[in-house]
Amino acid sequence: MVDAAQLPAKQIDDGDGWSFWPQCEGNPGRTRDWIYCYYFPRPSSAKYNDKYSHYEVSFARNKRFKLYNNGALYDTTTDVLEKEPITATNPTAVPDSARNILQEAISSYPAGGLNANRPKRKLTEKKKK
Is residue 21 predicted with pLDDT exceeding 90? Predict the structure, then answer.
């Protein structure tokens, strides 16, 4: 967005973002062999997996495989709905390099998200009218 708006880039010491603006303009740009996703929309919630909250999840994926932070690996070309993880008892031709690259991507990020350990808000009693 900074490139698209032609703004000066800020100095970010711990950032890893790469601009994809050159590709939007039809030019070559930097690419990765994987993407990393982290999802934890309500870290202050007291309860997870109800209709208002979701448990913490992160994964890395490439064009074919998707590795979750819990170790579950899926071949997304043959198992789009991620019903059957690839395990030792369920052998599939998975190059060790694919699992290693995706695990390195996951390991390069904080395990629990930077802001996930926020203190829970105290609920206050409603004032009587």
Answer: no
